[in-house]
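Please check this.
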Amino acid sequence: MTFSEALEAVKNGKAITRKGWNGKNQFVFMTPGRTLELGKHDIWTKHVQEVARQNGGKVVIQPYLNIKTVKNEIQIGWLATQSDMLANDWEIVETF
């Protein structure tokens, strides 16, 4: 599948991977956006807390892509390379 098709799958809650990746058991998924409120949610850094204070106690977190690495860790903020965007070997990960 193309990157465009894979990206649509991610937007619909699926995880995706590439056949051509050297590291196996890697996949990309999306964390949906949400609004956090001071005092209601665990706002994890002083910087995000300050943005919330400046916004009347709320901060909007935009959706973002993550990758599960071969070390079984989550890397927040995955970015596709040009090679990834032009590849046709994307697949949906059915189980993980």
Q: What stands out?
A: The chain has three helices and seven strands. The chain has a mean pLDDT of 93. Residues 3-93 form one domain.
